[in-house]
Design brief:
Elements: E1 5-9, H1 17-25, H2 31-34, E2 36-43, H3 47-51, E3 56-62, H4 68-88, E4 94-97, H5 102-107, H6 115-123, E5 129-134, E6 143-147, H7 157-160, H8 163-179, E7 187-191, H9 206-218, E8 225-230, H10 236-240, E9 246-249, H11 252-263, E10 268-272, E11 278-281, H12 298-317
Parallel strand pairs: 1-2, 1-4, 2-3, 4-11, 6-9, 7-8, 7-9
Antiparallel strand pairs: 5-6, 5-10, 10-11
Length: 318
């Protein structure tokens, strides 16, 4: 196929999003040659804007530092909205989103706790699954995660995690493995919710009452290999040792703590279940180092690479 046309939102203008985007697209490892980038963001980014000036651009307003958090949130939100419009219209093949500030988004009046929920609403889909991927890790094989719950207080996880949600969000992630990653028969391991995966009910019953029935439903798929439910402190070795293609985790931090510890500059956030590929570097706005030349563009580079891979797979499957 021709080079994938990828919409890249520049994120919060106060953060490192614009500079890691510029660095990733200018890197020597071929990222810029592999995609046709369309930048979506504000004017007024100074030197970074000049570095990105040769690329196609969708402008969503003007950045002025005097506008503070509210303006930063407004511009971030508009960029996401415009990128989704482009994707839904077929004007870009997929989107990559640079980091935003959730507080700024809320200050601007957007009622979403993060990109995932915002994108789900804009795309008009009933359910999505937040996934994380590091295709390269220093400890062995790739590490791919699916989160059954995402931006949710920990105390609400047990009551939210029912059989339907478990089955549906896992199925969405499995479909992404097949369609985007090209893994026809995924091998999937599950991290327990409780210590020792409940120890047969001694430390909690969710593994019996929720995990068990959900895995029985998922097991009806003949092209899925369910490896089982394992304690959250050891399950990731299944992926790093090359035995699992995906680790399904019951809540946000149990998975992300591992991925960010071992592959911070390779981690990519993937929203599975959208009608188009969406990836993002798995880090925040890092406003404390923005503009100082310290930001590592590795995760943004990985996000652009993975989005391009997904766009190619989507075309091949159509």
């Amino acid at each position: 196929m021709n080079r994938p046309r990828v919409g890249i939102t520049l994120g919060d203008p106060r953060g490192i999003g614009p500079e890691v985007t510029a660095a990733a697209l200018a890197s020597v490892d071929g990222v810029a040659d592999g995609v046709e980038a369309v930048l979506v963001g504000p004017r007024g980014l100074g030197e970074i804007e000049r570095r990105l000036g040769h690329l196609a651009r969708e402008t969503v307003g003007d950045w002025d530092p005097a506008g503070g958090e509210k303006l930063a949130g407004e511009l971030s939100g508009r960029a996401i909205e415009r990128a989704v419009e482009l994707a839904r219209a077929g004007e870009v093949d997929g989107i990559v989103t640079a980091p935003i500030s959730k507080a700024a988004l809320r200050a601007a009046g957007y009622p979403y706790p993060g990109h995932t929920e915002f994108l789900q609403t804009l795309a008009g889909v009933d359910e999505v699954t937040m996934m994380m991927a590091a295709e390269r890790t220093p400890l062995g094989g790739p590490l791919r995660l699916a989160l059954l719950t995402a931006h949710l207080p920990l105390r609400e996880v047990p009551s939210t995690l029912d059989v339907r949600l478990f089955t549906r969000r896992t199925s969405i992630a499995i479909e992404a493995l097949r369609t985007w990653w090209g893994i026809g028969r995924p091998r999937v391991a599950f991290a327990g919710l409780n210590p020792h995966a409940g120890e047969g009910g001694l430390f909690g019953t969710e593994e019996i009452e929720v995990f068990g029935p959900a895995l029985e439903r998922l097991g009806a798929d003949p092209d899925l290999e369910i490896l089982g439910v394992f304690p959250g402190d050891t399950v990731f070795l299944k992926a790093l040792g090359g035995q699992a293609d995906l680790i399904v985790t019951p809540y946000h931090d149990v998975g992300l703590a591992v991925l960010k510890t071992i592959a911070m500059n390779e981690g990519v956030n993937v929203t599975a279940g959208l009608p188009f590929p969406r990836t993002s570097p798995d880090h925040g706005t890092a406003m404390d180092i923005a503009g100082r030349g310290k930001a590592d563009p590795g995760a943004m580079r990985a996000a652009i690479d993975l989005c391009a891979r997904f766009c190619a797979a989507r075309v091949a499957a159509s």
